[in-house]
Design goal:
single chain; 21 helices
């Protein structure tokens, strides 16, 4: 073995772990790591701000199932990145973050950009550690990649002191991390089948981050054979083809009220891979954790998750892919009594999808349905947070696995960095980012990153001149008292052109199709600004209608 500096050792471990791409904003605290990446063959996607870089890494992990890798510098670099790291934690996305750190000899002096990363990141990640010894880099890195993917996946942070990283060491490499399997058994499947056989109104919730295209197909086959209605949690709509006869909608913010009622009425709930949280239960109201009267069958890769909030009648620690494969191998009932229940739930979903007209000449409900009907089945749709995203959730039908990239944590600014990561991973596929005017401006500086690295994404900027979600709540609670929710915007199309991309502004629905086709033909970063009427607020209510229903009205 030849001696290597820490940055070279680190890069060699990344190659062993199968890493082909990392995301970064450079800093002097990890120059040795940048040097190690120089001839590693690993692509370094250089970003403009650590929050955007972290969201790209998170989206890469969500899309591939392999840890997204992020490099940021100490202090402000690390704190900027925390927004994307929080997304990875709440979305159960595998991610490994390397943070530059001060020289070990300067510790506890409040040196330049010094931060105690164990205290900073402990609530946000699965594990955080600081590597003080160059010789232990392979050990720490292997463990980081193992923890990021095991059980419930999530982010891991390793802090790298500057002098440790630049020091030389002679040390063997560690092999690729192996994840302990939690495979469902035939007995597990039979226990679920026995419980389902006693149900009259069963409901399946398919969610979580550990899914594959095969798992989607196995779920669809199982649901069809058993005539089971399948719902998905917030922003997990690609876990089942939305055109499937068993799909009944998403348990999300602004969900179909009839789907919420369905959840409240079910007498047997089969939860596959998902946490049971506040979003899908309308703040724990449709299912009261203390007394809900529903038999709960909870399958999750983390044995600590079932029972976290809702006491399960059956708890199984297993990955969802193996469970749906096992369930699909069982003999289905010949004439389940709940077939009519499933059919009624499906009809409710189809009714919910019928476009409800919004004010003004640009109608997002028609733009979204056109995209749903026109885009290839493998097109990837991304979004951040805001009322604009509800049009995508309500009217777009996701067809294939890994075609939806959106933060279940509700982070603004996510959609555009996620789209860049998706396009770099799948340059041959259409990648469309939905972004509100406020959401886009949180990370629109990454247009420079998209141009530099050739990520030809199409961004639809939904411009209504306001932070729409907050304005909606404001009008409900403090009607007509608009405070802090109006925003001034640039010419988004001109901004895209200034970065070297393509841009257009659409002021009528009938002009969208031609603008979109031109954006595709441009084969570069493209931004289409959709100028909405000031009255547009949500998929169901205008500003005036929301104000009229406000608590202070009358």
């Amino acid at each position: 073995m030849e001696p290597r500096h820490g940055g070279k050792i680190l890069a060699d471990q990344l190659a062993i772990q199968g890493v082909e791409r990392v995301f970064s904003v450079p800093g002097e605290s990890f120059l040795a790591a940048l040097d190690g990446l120089y001839d590693s063959g690993i692509q370094n996607v250089v970003c403009r701000q650590e929050g955007g870089a972290a969201m790209m890494a998170e989206a890469h992990g969500k899309l591939t199932g392999q840890p997204g890798v992020l490099f940021v510098t100490r202090g402000p670099g690390a704190t900027n990145a925390s927004s994307g790291i929080h997304v990875a934690m709440q979305d159960s996305t595998p991610m490994v973050v390397f943070v530059g750190q001060i020289d070990i000899a300067h510790r506890d002096r409040e040196a330049f950009q010094e931060v105690d990363y164990k205290r900073l990141f402990s609530p946000l990640v699965k594990w955080v550690a600081e590597v003080d010894t160059t010789e232990r880099l392979p050990e720490y890195i292997a463990r980081a990649f193992q923890l990021a993917r095991s059980g419930r996946p999530g982010p891991v942070v390793l802090a790298l002191p500057e002098n440790m990283l630049s020091a030389q060491a002679t040390v063997p490499d560690r092999p690729k991390a192996r994840i302990a399997s939690q495979t469902a058994t035939n007995r597990d499947a039979h226990l679920i089948a026995k419980a389902l056989s006693k149900a009259e109104k069963p409901l399946v919730i398919a969610g979580g981050s550990v899914w594959s295209a095969q798992a989607q197909m196995d779920l669809q086959a199982f649901a069809a054979a058993w005539h089971l209605p399948v719902a998905v949690p917030f922003r997990r709509q690609d876990h089942i083809d939305n055109r499937h006869a068993c799909y009944v909608g998403d348990l999300s913010v602004g969900m179909n009220p009839e789907l919420a009622a369905l959840l409240a009425e079910t007498d047997c709930l089969l939860v596959l891979g998902s946490r049971l949280g506040d979003i899908m239960t309308n703040g724990y109201t449709t299912l009261n954790p203390e007394a809900h009267g529903t038999r709960i069958l909870h399958v999750h890769s983390d044995p600590d998750e079932p029972g976290h909030i809702y006491a399960p009648d059956l708890a199984i620690a297993a990955d969802s892919a193996s469970m749906v494969a096992q369930l699909g191998s069982l003999t289905p009932p010949t004439a389940p009594i709940w077939s009519g229940w499933r059919d009624a739930a499906r009809r409710s979903y189809l009714d919910w999808q019928m476009p409800l007209e919004t004010p003004g000449p640009v109608k997002m409900e028609l733009v979204t349905t056109w995209l749903s009907d026109t885009l290839p089945d493998d097109a990837i749709l991304t979004n951040g947070a805001g009322n604009y995203a509800a049009f995508l959730h309500r009217y777009f039908r996701f067809k294939q696995m890994h075609t939806q990239l959106a933060p279940t944590s509700g982070s603004m600014g996510y959609g555009f960095p996620a789209a860049i990561a998706a396009k770099l991973q799948h340059p041959d596929r259409d990648v469309i980012c939905f972004a509100g005017d406020g959401c886009f401006q949180m990370t629109c500086n990454e247009m420079s990153t998209a141009i530099q690295h050739g990520a030809a994404v199409i961004v639809l900027v939904v411009n209504n001149g306001k932070y729409g979600t907050i304005r909606m709540h404001q009008e409900k609670i403090y009607p007509a008292r608009v405070s802090g929710t109006q925003i001034a915007n640039p010419d988004f199309a001109a901004l895209a052109r200034s970065y070297g991309g393509w841009g257009a502004t659409v002021t009528r629905t009938e002009d969208f199709e031609s603008a979109f086709n031109e954006a595709k033909a441009a084969k570069t970063l493209a931004v289409i600004e959709l100028q909405l009427d000031d009255e547009v607020l949500s998929t169901g209510l205008s500003v005036s209608e929301t104000r009229a229903l406000g608590l202070g009205s009358g």
